[in-house]
Amino acid sequence: MFQAYIEFPGLSNHLFNFKESCTYKDIQKVVSKHYNVDVSRYRLKTSLGLYLNESFHFKEYFNVSIPTCISVMPSLLGGKGGFGNRLRSQGAKMSMIKTTNFEACRDLSGRRLKTIHDAERLARHILEEPERKQKEKEKLKKKIEKILEDPFERSKKKFIEDSEFLDQSRITQSRIEEGVIANIESEIMKCKNKENNSVKISKKWNVDSDSDTDEETSK
């Protein structure tokens, strides 16, 4: 006798006893009878990941002295295919796009081309370092020599001798000043008018209040 745990999705496991001469169909009958399902829609899978078929024999797959586990897996219908065709068409489209960036590729030793190119650029940078420093020193030296030749060159004031430009600038400046003064005067007049209006209102209010008090006293 063989013992096997039948594992059905969503239900608890059950231990069943089978004869040594049992076949794949015998296991299907037990599953169909116990779980009341159509076994043609399910497949039987061992704990080792092997799917059972009609050529199955217990002795070939399991140890008789140890209970084994058989899972009942729902079988899925296959698709219509065409996946490989889509991959080929996609590959053809990608091959049409030309690229010049091969940094992600590897050489025969397995190193990325980007790593190799970075190392080469770093080596060139280190080799050119003395030359760059020499150029910077020469540039600084020329700048110092130019300053020493005429140290007061920057302090010299430059005057504009264009009389027409000077006249226009004076006229523009005077117009701006007149506009600013006129704006200030208008604002002052507005403030004075507001103050006068507020004084008039307060006086009127005082007169009205006095008349009211007189009427009350006369009564």
TrEMBL record:
Gene Ontology CC terms: cytoplasm; nucleus
Classification via InterPro entries: RNA_Proc_DNA_Dmg_Regulator, SDE2-like_dom
Keywords: Cell cycle, Cytoplasm, mRNA processing, mRNA splicing, Nucleus
SDE2-like domain location: 78-180
GO biological process: mRNA processing; RNA splicing
Organism superkingdom: Eukaryota
First-listed, main subcellular location of the protein, grouped into a coarse class: cytoplasm
Cellular localisation: Cytoplasm; Nucleus
One Pfam family per UniProt: SDE2
Family to which the UniProt record says this protein belongs: Belongs to the SDE2 family.
UniProt-recorded name of the protein: SDE2-like domain-containing protein
